[in-house]
Specification:
It contains 7 helices and no strands. By secondary structure, the chain is mostly helical. It starts with a helix and ends in a 10-residue tail after the last helix.
Length: about 150
């Protein structure tokens, strides 16, 4: 029985760290996990950084209410955690959903950065070509109207 409980602790810790890594892109501290958990834990007591640290290193399991919060927030695979017959290959592959969201967020950020870079380059090229900052602004942002009178 003790071996099974230790396996559950290990699988819970592994699943928790894996899901947090997908969301935050790095390993997370007990203090950060406690803060993020407490923001989402409506109706159950808050946790301390020590409790979060114990979850992360696999020396403690959360109580049922806290486990529900973690399941809803991180989409933990409870079958993998609590079924001793499940191996790593039997896990549900929901990681792809997190990766797709991460890829889309990255593409949005790159797209915005590329647009700002393009506008900056067009403006600089126009200033160099025409020597006129107003023309440069019109070229880089054609939707803007100027009230410059001729």
């Amino acid at each position: 029985m003790k071996k099974n409980y230790e396996g559950v602790l290990e699988r819970f810790s592994e699943e928790l760290r894996s899901r947090l890594g997908l969301i935050f892109g790095k390993s997370i501290t007990g203090e950060s996990l406690a803060r993020e958990f407490n923001l989402r834990a409506f109706g159950c007591p808050q946790i301390t950084r020590e409790t979060a640290r114990r979850w992360l290193i696999g020396t403690a399991l959360p109580e049922y209410g806290r486990l529900v919060v973690l399941k809803q927030w991180l989409d933990l695979d409870m079958d993998y955690i609590f079924d001793p017959n499940k191996g790593i290959d039997d896990r549900k592959h929901t990681d792809d959903a997190y990766l797709n969201v991460d890829v889309l967020n990255t593409l949005d950020r790159i797209s915005a950065e590329a647009r700002m870079l393009k506008e900056s380059l067009v403006e600089k090229a126009c200033v160099i070509y025409t020597g006129d900052a107003v023309s440069a602004e019109l070229m880089s942002n054609p939707s803007k109207k100027t009230s410059k009178k001729l």
